[in-house]
């Protein structure tokens, strides 16, 4: 069975306690991996934390005189060491954006993740070392030859720092470039220098400064004109109110004028003549009463 074979291989590797050491040299750009199964030589690194320095003669006689610095490592399950977590085992830590060993998928996301503490122990599979001090003898694959940098720094200040330049030196001459062959043609690739101060950039900065000053002066002038106009409007409004108030006071103080008599009084309207009353016609009953009297006679 495949599972049983893999488990047996893992158990054998654990029983042997093989430790890998990745040794890097930043000055030459080289790197080398050592596999040590001797526990006496590996035990020196136990209870040492990230950033500690270790003498090289513990790894072998060829490394005598060298001083190595512990930069990190991984345990047998692949969890990386994190500086600042003082433990020699795996820990679950709440991580936020900006922390190492965590890549946020959303803004402000926090997550509790398993990481290995910064203290070395027997559960580690790989320890990363870097050379702090070089010994008398050269080591094959680490200090015997210089490997040129394929890509150099892009920022102007970083280029100055690498090559030890001053601000008067032209940074464009020291950019790390490489040749790319495509068919019969060869191209030279070089990075675009960031934060490079040129004559064009200085002119643009002067123009921006000038525009900024002009905008400031224009806004200042507009504010002054507005304040003048506002003060003029307020004065006119106050003067108008004062005139109205004065008129009211004068009308209140002035004596009441007598009513003017009319020259000819208006005649009273003539009375309408009364209509003469018409004689009322005799009633029919009176005629009927007269008829029987005539008949009696």
List the helices and strands and how they pair.
Blueprint: H1 2-16, E1 19-25, E2 30-36, H2 39-42, E3 53-55, E4 67-75, E5 90-95, E6 111-116, E7 124-133, H3 156-163, E8 178-182, E9 185-189, H4 199-253, H5 284-296
Parallel strand pairs: 1-7
Antiparallel strand pairs: 1-2, 3-4, 4-7, 5-6, 8-9
- H/E element order: HEEHEEEEEHEEHH
What share of residues are in beta strands?
Answer: 15-25%
- Rounded to the nearest angstrom, the radius of gyration is 56 Å
Secondary structure tally, helices? 5
**How would you sum up the global shape?**
elongated
Amino-to-carboxy terminus distance = 169 Å
Look at the helices and sheets and give the structural class.
alpha+beta
With strands numbered from the N-terminus, the spatial order across the biggest sheet is: 2-1-7-4-3
Largest β sheet strand count, sense and barrel closure: 5 strands, mixed
- Uncertain runs: 1-15
How many β-strand runs? 9
Average pLDDT metric: 84
- Helix content, binned percent: 25-40%
Please give a structural write-up.
The model is unreliable at 1-15 (pLDDT under 50). By secondary structure, this protein is of the alpha+beta class. It has five helices and nine strands.
What's the quick description here?
The protein has 297 residues and is an alpha+beta fold. 32% of the residues lie in helices and 20% in strands. The protein has helices at 2-16, 39-42, 156-163, 199-253, 284-296; strands at residues 19-25, 30-36, 53-55, 67-75, 90-95, 111-116, 124-133, 178-182, 185-189.
């Amino acid at each position: 069975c495949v599972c049983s074979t893999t488990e047996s291989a893992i158990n054998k590797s654990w029983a042997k306690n093989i430790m890998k050491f990745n040794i890097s040299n930043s000055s030459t750009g080289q790197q080398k991996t050592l596999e040590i199964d001797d526990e006496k030589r590996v035990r020196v690194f136990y209870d040492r934390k990230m950033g500690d320095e270790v003498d090289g003669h513990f790894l072998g006689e060829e490394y005598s005189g060298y001083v190595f610095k512990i930069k990190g490592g991984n345990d047998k399950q692949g969890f990386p060491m994190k500086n600042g977590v003082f433990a020699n085992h795996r820990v679950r830590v709440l991580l936020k954006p900006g922390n190492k060993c965590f890549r946020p998928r959303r803004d402000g996301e926090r997550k509790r993740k398993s990481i290995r503490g910064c203290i070395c122990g027997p559960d580690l599979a790989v320890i990363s070392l870097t050379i702090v001090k070089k010994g008398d003898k050269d080591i094959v694959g680490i200090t015997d030859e210089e490997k040129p940098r394929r890509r150099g720094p892009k920022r102007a200040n970083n280029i100055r720092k690498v090559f030890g330049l001053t601000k008067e030196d032209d940074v464009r001459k020291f950019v790390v470039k490489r040749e790319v062959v495509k068919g019969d043609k060869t191209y030279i690739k070089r990075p675009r220098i960031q934060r490079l101060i040129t004559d064009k950039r200085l002119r643009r900065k002067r123009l921006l400064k000038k525009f900024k000053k002009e905008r400031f002066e224009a806004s200042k002038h507009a504010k002054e004109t507005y304040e003048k106009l506002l003060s003029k409007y307020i004065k006119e409004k106050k003067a108008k109110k004062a005139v109205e108030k004065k008129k009211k006071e004068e009308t209140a103080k002035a004596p009441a004028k007598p009513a003017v008599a009319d020259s000819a009084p208006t005649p009273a309207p003539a009375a309408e003549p009364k209509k003469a009353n018409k004689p009322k016609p005799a009633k029919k009953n009176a005629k009927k009463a007269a008829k029987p009297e005539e008949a009696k006679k």
